[in-house]
Structure to design on (72 residues):
């Protein structure tokens, strides 16, 4: 897997640290707001690296989009 290390974008590793895996998701935001009693939510889109990590972990990409439904 490459792209985890900001200072070494082409560096590839088969065993990335948990710290760098988590840092790959630090730009995600979940926004929930209410207008006239109606609750709305938005989750930022996953980039290719984030999608790859979820896939390798056996998790569906919808794990993040489902947050909107659960929060609202």
């Amino acid at each position: 897997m490459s792209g985890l290390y900001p200072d070494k974008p082409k560096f590839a590793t088969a065993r990335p640290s948990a710290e760098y895996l988590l840092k790959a998701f630090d730009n995600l935001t979940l926004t929930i707001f209410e207008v006239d009693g109606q609750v709305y939510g938005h989750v930022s889109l996953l980039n290719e690296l984030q999608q790859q990590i979820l896939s390798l972990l056996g998790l569906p990409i919808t794990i993040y989009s489902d947050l909107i439904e659960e929060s609202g």
Summary: Residues 24-71 form one domain. The longest helix spans residues 62-71. The chain has a mean pLDDT of 88. The radius of gyration is 15 Å.
